[in-house]
Specification:
Elements (H helix, E strand, L loop, with lengths): L3 H29 L4 E9 L11 H7 L3 E8 L3 E7 L13 H18 L3 E7 L3 E8 L2 H13 L9 H11 L5 E6 L7 H10 L1 E8 L11 E5 L6 E5 L3 H24 L3 E6 L5 H14 L1
Helix pairs in contact: 1-3, 1-4, 1-8, 3-4, 5-6
């Protein structure tokens, strides 16, 4: 039973994103994620213009005239949402926290998937696997997935992306489309990411807050690492302090991009202070051009 307050949140997200899912992303989702492969439909007589490679030579020999095998695309997909619920996702300096944005992105992807009759599953992780919801079809199931994404209270505080990817490989047999939604403030996940992306279609949704990239000039600040609890005081009025912070943030961002590129993982960069529709559309257009 989904609590009333979570149902209200889901309804708000549904209303806010319905046009996006139905009119904007729906068709592009279907055209980009075309299914797991091809399945045999029928044998029919060859017609001018048909692919010669599709000719069924055994049937052709028996019938004395050319026949070919016709295949149709397997439409059904399994979509897995890997949601980072570590303590760093509770941070947000502008419109909303990273975790809230991540949960809404889960909802948009899940609604798009069920619109195309795909299965949706969920893995919530921190420095451990917190929750696993096996993939199923249907609106009721998707409402449960979104409810978990919005309301789950994790036990862990750190981030172990490698463990989440390894768990994905253990619990899924068939190839899936796996959306990894995280701020990627983690280490030692490059090799597991490469392995997972060979088996699945892994897509990285990176969540960033602008204050993680640049400090404002507001005097002395006490900063706390949400995952370790470590605290430091810095004077943001000092220019070299702000520049050092920005330089370190830039290096981390470049390292993250390098890891994702080396694993051949497509990336959607989303920021807490900007609408996410344009990055999603940019991703779908890029996938369409590639196909």
């Amino acid at each position: 039973m989904i609590p009333d307050d979570i149902l209200k949140m889901i309804r708000r997200i549904d209303i806010r994103t319905r046009h996006m899912v139905n009119d904007v992303l729906g068709g592009q989702y279907e055209s980009v994620f075309k299914g797991q492969g091809m399945e045999f439909e029928e044998v029919r007589e060859y017609q001018p213009g048909d692919e010669i490679r599709s000719i069924d030579w055994n049937v052709t020999a028996r019938m004395g005239r050319p026949f070919l095998k016709k295949y149709v695309e397997e439409r059904e997909l399994t979509v897995m949402l890997l949601l980072d619920a570590s303590a760093s996702t509770t941070f947000g300096s502008v419109k909303r926290r990273k975790g809230e944005l991540s949960a809404e992105l889960c909802a948009v992807i899940a609604f798009s998937a069920i619109k195309n009759n795909d299965k949706v599953g969920l893995i919530i992780f921190t420095d451990r696997i917190e929750k696993y919801v096996p993939p199923q079809k249907g609106r009721r199931h998707v409402l449960r997935v979104i409810s978990e994404a919005l309301s789950f209270e994790p036990d862990g505080r750190g981030t172990d992306i490698a463990a989440a990817l390894e768990y994905l490989n253990r619990v899924t047999i068939r190839r899936t489309v796996a959306f990894l939604i995280s701020d990627f403030l983690a280490a030692d996940y490059e090799r597991p990411l490469q392995i997972a992306n060979r088996r699945h279609d892994v897509i990285a949704l990176t969540i960033t807050d602008p204050r993680e990239l640049e400090l404002p000039n507001v005097g002395i600040l006490e900063l706390e690492d949400a995952e370790t609890g470590e605290k430091i005081q810095i004077d943001t009025q000092v220019r070299r302090v702000r520049e050092a912070f920005q330089r370190l943030a830039s290096e981390k961002a470049q390292q993250k991009s390098r890891i994702l590129r080396s694993a051949n993982v497509d990336t959607i960069d989303v920021f807490t202070d900007k609408p996410y529709i344009e990055p999603l559309l940019k991703f779908f257009r890029m996938r369409e051009r590639r196909h």
